[in-house]
Design goal:
Shape: globular
Order of helices and strands: HHHHHHEHHHHHEEEHHHHEH
CATH architecture of the domain at 118-373: Orthogonal Bundle
Strand order of the largest sheet: 2-4-3
Helix content: 40-55%
Structural class: mainly alpha
Oligomer: single chain
Number of strands: 5
Length: 376
């Protein structure tokens, strides 16, 4: 190689000393090119366009956030406070508004097909049965367990029992298993309902079951929200108190002749004409084949009739608040059950408190099947 020739590096160094710069056109950077200003203008334009577009949304979101910091309104809590003071709960939705009575009592009428050979046991026989099976209310209050003894008829002699405590105890012992049993059926139905609601797809058998429950609770348009509100228990203490009030602790003619524990009226079909009713009145007291039919009809009545919508809404609020079903609180919404209105509510509360009936609200029926055992 000729030593007189400069290398490229040596040439660059020499030119740099003289203040000159060599530019390599083949490796010219994009950002050093003439397109740089155009690129920056384009990106800047996009940025400001995006900013002006999103600015109203950012402002509104910030406004809502500040409002939410000041107050978060809990409607459920507000409604529950109304329940506590016995106020009406007004719902803006159409939940629990309409009723289809066509199939409402179909399962209850099935009891009418039972044979007429039911034997009415005497009071002394029933008391001995309870004694032999160690079924007494003192133990129930302590253990919360009830023997699954199902009687179809009240004893005729119950109205002749002069000892008030004995008559009350016998009456409670007879109807307590029946009330809990009907509540258990509703509990099992609610478990199945929520299981179905938690699925994305339901089987044909589940859809048929839902259809049967829509009919049973008189739900129109297959409204699941209404079914959830109506398909629920009645507190045991409240049911006992109403039965005691309506039958005089089992001594009324309606209870003994028609197994009518809750004094439900009817304007058609079989019934018992009240002795003091006006000549022009057409209503009768519904009669039933057995006591269990009366309990079920009573529950269906409170769970569907428009007169007790506030009762059901108050119960739903208690459920939302994860509270127990308080009979003393819910009794406030049964003023339409009797013509005496608020006085009727007052009497119900007195019966519950004086007889400590809330002791039975969490009582469980000893299982007669594996399915029922899961409820204990």
């Amino acid at each position: 190689m000729n030593k007189n020739l400069f290398t490229l590096i040596q040439a660059k160094k020499l030119l740099l000393k003289k203040g000159l710069l060599i530019v390599n056109k083949q490796k010219k950077s994009f950002f050093n090119s003439d397109l740089k200003s155009f690129y920056l203008s384009f990106v800047g334009g996009l940025f400001f366009m995006g900013l002006f577009y999103t600015l109203p949304f950012i402002t509104e979101a910030n406004k809502n956030y500040k409002i939410s910091l000041k107050e978060i309104k809990n409607n459920s809590k507000s409604n529950f406070e109304k329940v506590l003071v016995g106020e009406d709960i007004k719902k803006t939705s159409k939940i629990d508004d309409e009723l289809d009575i066509k199939n409402l009592y179909e399962d209850i009428f099935q009891f009418d097909k039972l044979p007429d050979d039911t034997i009415r046991l005497s009071a002394s026989t029933i008391e001995q049965l309870f004694k032999d099976t160690n079924y007494n209310l003192k133990d129930v209050r302590e253990t919360k367990l009830v023997k699954p003894i199902s009687l179809s008829l009240l004893p005729e002699e119950i109205k002749k029992i002069e000892n008030t405590k004995r008559r009350k105890n016998l009456f409670i012992q007879i109807i307590l298993p029946l009330i809990i049993d009907e509540n258990n059926k509703i509990k099992l139905d609610r478990v199945k309902l929520f299981s179905i609601l938690n699925k994305n797809n339901n089987t044909n058998s589940e859809k048929k079951w839902l259809d049967s429950k829509f009919k049973q609770y008189g739900v129109l348009s297959k409204d699941l929200s209404t079914l959830k509100v109506r398909m629920d228990e009645i507190p045991v203490s409240l049911a006992i108190a109403q039965a005691a009030k309506e039958t005089g602790w089992g001594s009324s003619r309606f209870a003994l002749e028609g197994n009518a524990l809750f004094g439900q009226w009817t304007w058609s079909g079989e019934g018992i004409k009240p002795a003091g009713a006006d000549v022009d009145s057409t209503h009768k007291v519904m009669k039933f084949k057995i006591l269990q039919a009366s309990v079920r009809a009573y529950q269906r009545n409170l769970n569907t009739h428009s007169s007790y919508k506030n009762f059901r809404m108050a119960r739903a609020e208690l459920r939302d608040e994860k509270k127990m079903l308080d009979s003393l609180l819910l009794a406030n919404f049964l003023d339409k059950y009797a013509e005496t209105g608020s006085n009727y509510v007052k009497i119900l509360k007195q019966i519950i408190e004086q007889n400590k009936l809330t002791d039975f609200d969490d009582a469980k029926l000893l299982p007669s099947s594996i399915e029922l055992q899961n409820l204990i």
